[in-house]
Amino acid sequence: MSKVSRIIPILENFLFFWLGLALVLSLAGDRLEIPAFLQVLGRTHPLLLHFPIVLLLMAVGFLWVSDEKLKKIGAQILLFGANLTGITVVAGLILANEDYDGDALVWHQWLGVGSLLLSVLIYFFREKSSLFLRTTSATLAVSIILTGHFGANLTHGDDFLLAPIRSEEIELVTLEEAELFEHLVQPILESKCIACHKEGKIKGELRMDQLAGLQKGGKNGPFVIPGDLDKSLLIQRINLPMEEKEHMPPKNKAQLTEEEIEILELWVAAGASFDQKVSDLTAEEPLFQLASNKFTTQKSYGFEPAAESDIQDLNNFFRKVNPVFPGSPALEVAYYGISTFDPASLKDLKKVSEQVVRINLNRMPLADVDLGFLGDFPNLEELQLNTTGISPNQLSSLEKLRNLRNLALSGNQFKSEAVATLAKLKQVKRLFLWNSGLNQTDQEALRKALPETKIDFGFDGKGVIYALNAPKIDFETGLFRDSSQLIITHPIRTAEIRYTLNGSDPDSVSSPVYSGPIWIKKTAQIRTKAFAKDWIGSPTAYALVFREGIKPKSYKLAFEPHTRYAANGATTLFDGVKGKTNHTSGEWLGFTDTALEIELYLDEKSSPQTLDLSLLLNESAYIFPPESVEIWTGNQAGWQKMPETPTLSSTKLEEVRFGVLSYDLPKSEFDKLKIRLKPISKLPSWHPGAGAKGWVFVDEIILN
Amino acid sequence: MEKELLEQGLNHNRRKFLSRLSLGIGSVALGSLLIPDLFTGKQEAEDGLMRALPHFAPKAKRIIYLFQNGAPSQLETFDYKPLLTKNFGQELPDSIRAGQRLTGMTAGQSSFPLVGSYFGFNQYGESRAWISSLFPHISSVVDDLLIVKSMHTEAINHDPALTFFQTGAQVGNRPSMGSWLSYGLGSENANLPAFCVLLSRGKGNGQGVYSKLWSNGFLDATHQGVQFSNSEDPVLYLKDPNGMSRDQRRKMIDQIAALNEINYQEFNDPQITAKVQQYEMAYRMQTAVPEITDTSKEPDSIIKLYGPDCLVPGTYAANCLLARKLSENGVRFVQLYHQGWDAHDNLPNQMIGQAKDVDQATAGLITDLKQRGLLDETLIIWGGEFGRTNYCQGKIQPENYGRDHHPRAFSIFMAGGGVKSGMVYGETDDFGYNITENPVHVHDFQATVMHLMGIDHEKLTYKHLGRRYRLTDVHGKVVKDLIA
Fold this sequence. Notes:
Distance between the termini of chain B: 86 Å
Largest sheet of chain A: 7 strands, mixed
Distance between the termini of chain A: 127 Å
Largest sheet of chain B: 9 strands, mixed
Low-confidence stretches of chain A: 167-171
Structural class of chain A: alpha+beta
Strand content of chain B: 15-25%
Number of helices of chain B: 14
Radius of gyration of chain B: 28 Å
Number of helices of chain A: 15
Helix content of chain A: 25-40%
CATH superfamily of the largest domain in chain B: Alkaline Phosphatase, subunit A
Oligomer: heterodimer
Low-confidence stretches of chain B: none
CATH architecture of the largest domain in chain A: Sandwich
Radius of gyration of chain A: 46 Å
Strand order of the largest sheet of chain A: 3-4-5-6-7-8-9
Mean pLDDT of chain A: 87
């Protein structure tokens, strides 16, 4: 056996190997992840492909003839050729995962795989019949040529082959240059109408391939009547129902899309001009908005994208470097994290200095950092340096940045000298200088020096006077045994807090100034207000704290409280637990159908002098002060009614709060008390529930 | 020669052919090694993500959504309807109501008397937009606002309407808007969550908010909204425990990550990876968050701008200030909720309180972002889940009345972030009941917001339980008229 005949079975085996590999690679599509070393193999595809083309075409030639000897040689060439096809196809499939896409790729790929399959089939079944051999090998030849053609289109562009004999130009039009007719309307006419309305085929005597024809109109009248949708034939025809003979474009031709119809209508409505520019329209006009979607407004950059690996290296937890949108060569940079900021890391950006268009260094401490490097970003458009502690002399390098449009310098304390530096930045369109230490004169000077620049000096709060918010009163418990600590705070630390403990409203002159926790030893109403320069005094904050009193020996309620607000019955009133501002908290007794009527039996020696009734008030929830209060003191001689027992009154809906009814008890001897609080029987007319019954809520009865 | 012929024949018998085929199968196996995710669906999701991303620079980078929970009345804020005042107490014509369903709260009412705004209206700014006297501060920034008076929704009760606004569906379990954006765009600042949630509550009649509103749904758990506490410490347990140094903390997190990695190798549960990432983020948040939540360095003018309540933790004003600080630190989506707008009765009084809570701070936030040059890249949205009826619920008095839920027309406003400014969009009829011009459905609103962030709402999908989901379900049209 010769060397050649030994190699043949191996090569035959390999054919199946290539087929399998080609099959799986092409089915996997773009889900492949190709390691770098295989990418190199992929890139040999343009080199390898020439061998199979030559070998397979040669083999086809040999197989086509009837000479058996030549056929045998042809078969061996085919075997070599098919193997090389296999390598080429596999390499091609790997290469396809790089930046290729589109119809040409699909055709090229499947024709290539097809050619491989075909050549393997021909090789193994070449003995079947000469008809089979001839047809298949002819197909193979065609397939190879087509594969080659699509491959060439991939590398050289779609029109490569015929480009010299074609003369079409496709230009990218920007919104600024776009013409209404030429760039919006005409393309529609060209693609959908002109085939039947042009020289040589002037249907309805309307020519659309020249302006004169459009202006002249057709046999049924003018093409359009500017501004009149109803009378314009163009608009009439395109809007006729499909079944109508007159409907344009005719039934079997490509129809206008909704958007195309809209464009044509809007064009006619806007006056059907042949020479108006899109940019002449106002931004509100729908036609402008449609157009603005069609034409590019995107700035194109003249620089190459940065290396992907460079961008990746620059990204970490504290610095974000990203394209402004996926696929854009322009980059934006942002720094985060004050405590982790390392000024030296700014130098890393040098690698991408050409591509960076936006830098956000807001809040980074840059006070003593050399910012000269900023001058090295020739394409920088936006720079944010808010609250970085910089001084104007650090900004001298910005003058070089011809493309700088937006500059944010808010929150940096500049002095008047800054005006001279900033005045040089004529290229900047928008400048942000809130809280930057520039006084009125400086601001005027800068405005004058930069007439083209929109400068925002922001809100300085000068001359604006608002009311402070109320201080906050904190205490541990609203009902204390011996003493209680009150802490008053205000969010604005410089605010002065004044307070009273006798229920009167504090003022900014005579009321005591709060300087630390207050110790309260008896029942007190705390009222407090905050005052500060440049502010109106705050509303009053109010709190009630009770000192626990004398416990009665026993007590009994005449009527049960309402079942929903029964808490623990009468004991609730003497349990020393101050209720929260929520009547459903289970710390309050609620009465509506019946009065709160209670008899207290006291120790003989206790002889209390004051009585406090702790109430909840919440008009929105129908919780009012009692309509009337009646108090009797009693001893063996019987009950004695106290003459004057005023109650509180409500005049409007207020927020939920505590209330207290305090009475001085008579000096005379008594050992029992009777108290009767009658809930309001008809809510007043100003209340949304006017006429309905009100409620009384009490959580504690305190004797002292 | 004979031998060779014989061999040739042997070479081509069926058995040989089949055995050669096996070689082909071997190469199939070899090739499949190059496809790491052959048996998982991961790649598809990533491809979907890339398809949804823009080929143009997005208008907005970040969103601050000031959700007014409970549904503020459009008729007392932005939709001026003098007819309702003129026809006070008259019956709502059936031709206007046109069979609109009612909630159980007014369905039993025998009469639907019209009631006009207790508050006067005025025109402001260059746009001459009508705004009620409830919002003196918001009126002063009217030329930065885009007021949409023609919002409409499908739900008529709070929870479904709120869920619909946030997740695009009335039932729970779908990802929230912030989660979708976190998924689509990722975080700008790797040291903070991409989606933060801040809650506050006014004194008006309130409706609850639930964590399902900021749920990641079926998306990865890292896209969940992180709720900040409305106390002095917005993020609890950030400090290292006593006696533990930063180095020790680092070591502990590394060790836990290593243990989790072992578990992940065994079970392949993506929740484990999410957990590891969350520990890692928590570690970095330990330094990032205190820098942000510290308001002590804010100058006086800022306190005046937002109002003094901005220093009281848990208030709407404080949340607005915090929202600015989070947003300028690269948080993609800050979601505020201010509760208490559900004024079924005592509406004028309740609205005075609610408006006082939000008016100054909202306007302050807009001005503050503007003076820092950040308003252009930050989209602010203010609005509730639906509107309120033009007829009175309960007893009717000129100065005291209530309004029920109304999904057919309501107003919201936006500012910055690539929306038109100084514009009023959409119109309602003279009764303020139906939209007469340019309706904007909730899905349209969501599609538009996604568009502003540079995302095609139809392409940002996630496959879950056998179908692809998106924020706008199968609806939504970008309202181009709103975009600058």
